Amino acid sequence: MKLFLIGLFAGIVGGMGIGGGTILIPALTIFLGTEQHIAQSVNLLSFIPTAIIALIYHIKSKNIQYKIVTLIIIGGIIGSSIGAILAAITKAVILKKIFAVFLFGMGIYEIFSKPRK
Amino acid sequence: MADKLKLFFIGFITGIINGLLGAGGGTLIVPAMVFLLGIEDHKAHATAISIILPLTIVSSFIYLQNKIIDIPLTINVAVGSTIGGIIGAYFLNKLSIPILRKIFGIIMIVASVRMLVS
Questions:
Q1: pLDDT classification of A54: cutoffs 50, 70, 90
Q2: How far is the C-alpha of B101 from the C-alpha of A39, rounded, in Å?
Q3: Given B70, B77, B113, which is nearest A7 (Cβ)?
Q4: Does residue B101 register a pLDDT over 90?
Q5: B94: which residues sit within 8 A by CB, 6+ positions away?
Q6: Which candidate from A41, A77, A99 shows the least CB-CB separation from B58?
Q7: Among partner residues B19, B82, B91, which is closest to A79 by beta-carbon distance?
Q8: What is the least distance, in Å, from the CA of A7 to any CA of chain B?
């Protein structure tokens, strides 16, 4: 039940586009004591079905900017392979600290960013 | 050419963060698209998902190969988050996002401090 609720809350935040993973990963490590690598893996895997459902909706409403995505995805696939390999060889304690620093920066951004219309 | 390189590097940096931290790609790429590429906010959010999905699949594959996985935990969380995702998308236009962003920003900072000192 606790897991379902954490997932539900993270999903609501994710569905609004405010970054579900940045909520889910700390929730799992802080409240359930989940190991950092596992929490990250849970977030990556659980994002796949969520993203597929969201994408169907966005494709229908023609919000995808196809002109720019290809090159970003090519760069992104190379980057995400390097990132995932680095994660696998990094100790959990260090990974958690890197995550915390990133989260702090993103938190500051969320507070001070102004929406552009 | 410079534009193509820019697109490639935006993807590259997003990918490294998303793969290394298992999250955060979307939080990075939306402002990158809005501020560096001049794309509208809601289109940037939708486009971000089309980019993060393939990156997440690639990273997930590497995590699985390294046996970094907990299937029961993942299923429980995924069921909740998929339902939550639908609720969140539904409420997106009904709530004040700027206020929510500030609330979540504070939650993120508190969580980051807890993770740093634990």
A1: confident
A2: 23
A3: B77
A4: no
A5: none
A6: A77
A7: B19
A8: 4
CA distance A82 to A80: 5
> A98 CA to chain B: closest CA distance, Å?
8
Query: One-letter amino acid identity for B79?
Result: V
What are the tens digits of pLDDT across the range A5-36?
Answer: 898 888 888 777 677 889 899 999 999 999 99
The answer to whether the CB atoms of B108 and A103 lie below 8 A apart is: yes
Task: Calculate the CA dihedral of residues B101, B96, B39, B19 and round it to 10 degrees.
Answer: 30
A·B CB contacts under 8 A: 382
**Closest-approach residue (CA) in chain A for B107:** A107
Spatial CB neighbours of A80, under 8 Å, sequence gap ≥ 6: B15, B16, B18, B19, B25, B55, B56, B58, B59
The CA distances from residue A89 to A20, A35, A37, A84, in Å, are 25, 14, 10, 9
* Distance from C-alpha of B18 to C-alpha of B29, rounded to nearest angstrom: 10
pTM for the structure as a whole: 0.92
